[in-house]
Design a protein that fits this description.
four-stranded mixed sheet, 359 residues, alpha+beta, seven-stranded antiparallel sheet, PH-domain like
Length: 359
Amino acid sequence: MNIKGYYLDGKSSKRHEANLELNSHNGIKLYLHSAGAQHIGQELIMFNLDAIKIESRLANTAREITLAEEQLFISYDNDGIDALANRLSPTLKQRDWLHKLESNISAILLATFIMVAMVYAALIYGVPKSAHWLADNLPNVVEAQFSDSLTLLDQSILQESQLSPAHQKDLKILMAPYYQAFNQLNIRIEFRSGFGANAFALPDGTIVFTDDFIKLAKSDDEILAVLYHEIGHLANKHMLRRAIQASLMGSFILMVTGDLDTLDIITGLPSLLLDLSYSRDFEIEADQFALEQMFQADINIDHFGVIMRRLADANSGHSEVETEKGLFSKVQGYLSTHPITEDRVQRVLDFKEAHGIID
């Protein structure tokens, strides 16, 4: 048995053309024949069997045979090295399962499917559940670190409210009995202009209502419906969970790809699409919370569906429910993080049916 390759003595990076042979007399020693001028046809070194380590095969890449004292023999003759390994003792017999696996197209397809399924499960189920658990168990001091969130928004997209101080005071008096039941959330009401007709909650307990939203609401009950929706975000720690999810997803993608450029692309696109929105699941949780609280406070829950429809119309530029159900509108609805208006209206109807509420 003769295997052609290169020999490195472990003392320098210089390679020597060489042949590796198994001693046919006792099968326990190797003879290395150099092709160098000084050692042509001469025995160069003998190695004990116990000093040899054969690298696993991977396709047709070069393989290393580690000899004594960090000496190496490198060869592309994988079949020869496999034959050599098979003739050695069981302790050195080549473990070629990796080569067999990567040479089997069925195994490759199966492994790819399993990997994709695992990545999908980790991102869709593992990351959100982990974020939920972490958010519930992090100390309150972590959420307090988001206290500058409103300041940052004031410096970018929000402006001072144009509502009169008296009007703002009346609105806070209206809301106080309803949010003070959640003292542990440290809720604080603020008013700002800009950002359209909207309301949103920040992790530190601040709930912001825009001037356009206050003008859009036709009754106190509609304002309270949205107040409860935002309290639902705070009670479920949605903003904190979303921040943790983004961090976990970034770490997971970096671990899988090992590429920072890929990380920027994959995590940057969702950030662009989502902007300041919550995920659809978070919106559904907040909707359900609002309906439960309105029911307990004896507020007609129809106001929830009415104000959500009006908000959707105001922010989308459509006056009534969209009649077009083409491919574009379906894709647009899928990408949106907020449930479409009809889903929310249906949620109100389902809640009324479940609780025996009759108009």
